[in-house]
Design goal:
This protein has helices spanning 2-12, 25-33, 52-65, 94-110, 117-131, 169-172, 176-183, 200-208, 232-246, 252-259, 283-296, 314-321, 341-347, 376-379, 382-385; strands at 43-47, 70-73, 85-87, 90-91, 136-140, 158-161, 193-195, 213-215, 269-272, 275-278, 302-306, 327-330, 353-354, 366-370. By secondary structure, it is α/β, with parallel strands linked by helices. The strands form 2 sheets. Strands 4-3-2-5-1-6-7-8 form an 8-stranded mixed beta sheet, with helices on both faces. It has a 6-stranded mixed beta sheet with strand order 9-10-14-11-12-13, with helices on one face.
């Protein structure tokens, strides 16, 4: 079984599939051959630069707690691909994952459809959820919105567009307005859209689709929310606005019970009393991390372990995060686009060291591991991130 899973991962990460190629033609053609499983599903569809994962986790937690069979599709994963596809909080099994990957790649090859890794995963997810009669799917876009593989769905229960900032500018545009236009592409005819920012591009698309446009004020009380971080008020407000609109039968007691148990690893996650993991991978994420550190640990000495992809604005991220007196350690992780320690040191105005292990970090300070999702599994033991598994 484990061997099959390894082969499936090798197939996904092979040179022929491990790239980005936005567009809906290939995934549409493949899903047609599978009898369009996506058309059998009811989806809540999310796009945005930051906050998508938290909003997804909150909604999935509430719906599951309310007794619905809830599918959750998110990315990226931290340890295993199976983390991306869950039913009621349980990852797809490695056996099922391998079976679906092989089946879909086989059909694609026979029909000369050249799928990317994300398209294969998206097809696996739609078929797995349809085969398992999931009640509601919480569907997170991979990149952008308009041409993201998840956007093959024809309608949705609602669209949610979270905070927008500059990221993936080489693919989505170099202004927030252009990025908002791409994210607004998930809005469907006569399907409501919830957002916390009033971009004209989102309003215009909602008007064009005759869709209810709901601008959500971040006013929810987060004192009962298990997720920490100053940005969570906006995320919770968006999530609950959608839940209350779509499922008015869910009681406030169930909602409050649900949000006290939400788990969303590696987003301002306190793994030990002196260790925070935060996958802040762009300047906006870095700003949210800095604000949360200032709020929760204003007087505590900080020690950062930072690594980053070289296509991110790592110089700006470091300017936001680091201050005089911080201990700074850089890490070059196993990814072809990972910044070298030397590249990071050249762009950093403060003294720094090369990271070797958590055990070698100084005591009597709060340690923060941040900068990229892709390095976390090399630094943090799985037992710290998922203590109850």
């Amino acid at each position: 079984m484990e061997n099959n899973y390894k082969k499936a991962v090798e197939l996904l990460t092979s040179q022929g599939k491990f790239y980005i190629n936005l567009g809906l033609e290939r995934i549409s053609a493949l899903l047609e051959l599978l009898n369009n499983p996506q058309d059998k599903l009811k989806c809540i569809h999310l796009a945005g630069t930051n906050g998508k994962g938290s909003v997804c986790a909150i909604i999935a937690g509430v719906l599951q707690n309310a007794g619905m069979k809830t599918g959750l599709y998110t990315s990226p994963h931290i340890f295993e691909y199976t983390e991306r596809i869950k039913i009621n909080g349980n990852d797809i099994s490695k056996n099922d994952f391998a079976k679906y990957v092989f089946e879909i790649c086989d059909i694609a090859d026979k029909n000369k459809i050249h799928l990317t890794e994300f398209e294969v995963l998206t097809a696996v997810m739609f078929k797995y959820f349809a085969d398992n009669d999931v009640d509601v799917v919480i569907l997170e876009t991979g990149l952008g919105g308009r041409f993201d593989a998840t956007n093959v769905i024809k309608s949705n229960l609602c669209s949610i567009i979270t905070h927008i900032d500059l990221d993936h500018t080489e693919r989505l545009g170099n202004t927030k307005s252009k990025i908002a236009f791409e994210k607004a592409g998930i809005i469907k005819p006569n399907c409501p859209v919830f957002t916390s920012e009033g971009y004209e591009e989102i309003k215009d698309k909602a008007d064009e689709c005759n869709s209810l446009f709901s601008l959500v004020t971040p006013f929810e009380d987060t004192s009962n929310l298990s997720l920490k971080g100053t940005c969570q008020q906006e995320n919770l407000s968006l999530a609950l606005a959608a839940v209350r609109y779509l499922f008015p039968q869910i009681s406030e007691d169930v909602i409050q019970d649900s949000i006290s148990k939400i788990s969303h690893p590696c987003r301002f996650q306190l793994c030990r009393e002196d260790l925070i993991i935060d996958a802040s991978h762009n300047p906006n994420g870095a700003m949210a991390l800095r604000e949360s550190l200032d709020f929760y640990y204003p007087d505590k000495k900080r020690c950062f372990v930072f690594g980053c992809l070289n296509n991110k604005d790592y110089k700006k991220m470091m300017q936001i995060l680091f201050a005089k007196g911080d201990e700074i350690y850089f890490y070059h992780f196993n990814n072809q686009n990972s910044c070298t320690v030397e590249e990071l040191q050249e762009s950093c105005e403060f003294e720094s060291n090369t990271f070797k292990s958590l055990d070698e970090l100084p005591q009597n300070c709060i340690k923060i591991v941040c900068g990229s999702f892709y390095m976390l599994n090399e630094i943090i033991p799985q037992s710290l991130i998922h203590p109850h598994q």
